[in-house]
Write a structure and sequence with these properties.
401 residues, 80% helix, Growth Hormone, Chain: A, mainly alpha, globular, 0% strand
């Protein structure tokens, strides 16, 4: 029976289906920033209300991700993906009927956060890490990440069309249907994709990583990635309208970020298979800081927004295949979903602060400027701490026959 399953469940099929799941998962949540203005206006909320819900979503996603990863490492990804898709869909649907901050936090924050964790590209990347030969693993991780950006490029403008054509509430109802497509796709990833357990238990793997200095540097650096991505994804559209530019520019700015990240994520995955991942990460974070600083200092225009979106898009999730690839490279792919899940938790802590502080400082000062400059400082910090990571295999792997 197992041989029959492996006959049709080829690495190529898993790669295609995994990329489709990543596209749907990331594409739906990429456009939530488009609802900041309409919902805040409809309910007379400050921007901190919506920002807090998104911040809770990111935090819940981060807390749930290691547990989702551990279940996937133990039982396979299929059931986790299907359950996550259902919760994701219900959460988005209930946002349409959220009449106050409490229900918004429950739906957009808690439920969507749990749903995203259960159907996330982190699980897809872990499956790629287990299935792909080491020499092709980095490129596969880049493809899985790039697929999420294709979703952002396709679905953010579509969400804006839904809002303009049917209103923000109906747009959310329509959007809630997309995660359900993950359910049939998840059958391709059903069961355990890697039957060999080896000699190491899950607890031993966690303890081994916890004792590794480089692992904690990865954890710290990915915090910065989360801060940047969540702040920009949520607050760039309203920031653009504050500059006096049309709302459609905000939608296309996020779409452009997704478009250029297709090339950035896949390119970093391919290059990560050839060059030092840790040095590439240092360069990427340094480049982010420079791009953000130039954007803040440049007079606002449609051209400056689009150039910034393209530049930050190249750097957007290019860190993901390199960071996840380092986890697999140092500790092996067996418990990658769990170990990368803990790294991703740090990413989501950064995302929580990036989103929430954006809304907090805007309501307090009427400006996002302080948070932009926080992003620059954090980029420099991340560039420094990735440089000294020891990226050699742990002794357990190096000594294995």
């Amino acid at each position: 029976m197992q041989d029959a399953l492996r006959t049709w469940r080829t690495p190529a099929l898993i790669l295609i289906v995994g990329c489709m799941i990543s596209l749907l998962n990331f594409g739906v949540r990429a456009g939530f920033g488009l609802w900041v203005g309409p919902m805040s206006g409809a309910f007379d909320w400050g921007r901190e209300v919506f920002s807090l819900a998104i911040a809770i979503q990111n935090l819940v996603w981060g807390v749930a991700q290691p547990f989702a990863g551990a279940i996937a490492d133990r039982y396979g990804t299929g059931r986790v993906l299907a359950a996550g898709a259902v919760i994701y869909s219900v959460g988005v649907l209930l946002v349409a009927f959220a009449g106050g901050p409490a229900t918004l936090n429950l739906s957009l924050g808690l439920l969507v956060g749990l749903g995203v964790a259960g159907s996330s590209f982190a699980l897809v990347l872990a499956a790629f890490g287990r299935l792909m030969p080491p020499e092709k693993r980095s490129a596969a991780l880049g493809l899985g990440t790039a697929a999420g950006s294709i979703g952002q490029f396709m679905m953010v403008p579509l969400a804006q069309v839904f809002i303009e054509a049917a209103g923000w509430q109906t747009a959310l109802i329509l959007l809630s249907l997309f995660p359900l497509a993950v359910i049939p796709l998840s059958t391709v990833l059903a069961g355990r994709l890697d039957e060999g357990r080896g000699q190491q238990s899950l607890g031993e793997a966690v303890r081994e990583a916890g004792a590794h200095r480089g692992y904690w540097l990865l954890v710290s650096g990915f915090f910065v990635c989360g801060f940047h991505v969540a702040f920009i994804q949520t607050h760039l559209p309203p920031y653009i309208t504050d500059l006096g530019l049309p709302a459609q520019v905000g939608a296309w700015a996020l779409a452009l970020v997704g478009l250029f990240n297709i090339f950035g994520a896949y390119g970093s995955g391919v290059m990560g298979g050839r060059y030092s991942k840790k040095y590439m990460l240092s360069g990427l974070y340094l480049a982010r800081g420079i791009v953000i600083a130039i954007f803040v200092l440049t007079p606002a225009s449609i051209a400056s927004v689009l150039v910034f979106s393209a530049a930050i898009g190249i750097l957007w999730l290019s860190t993901v295949p390199l960071t996840s690839g380092l986890v697999a490279q140092i500790f092996g792919p067996r418990y990658m979903a769990t170990l990368f899940g803990f790294v991703f938790f740090s990413h989501q802590l950064g995302a929580f602060l990036g989103v929430w502080l954006g809304g907090y400082f805007y309501d307090a000062t009427g400006s996002y400027e302080m948070v932009w400059w926080m992003g620059v400082a954090l980029a420099l910090f991340a560039a420094l701490i990735h440089w000294p990571i020891d990226d050699r295999q742990v002794a357990r792997l190096a000594e294995a026959p």
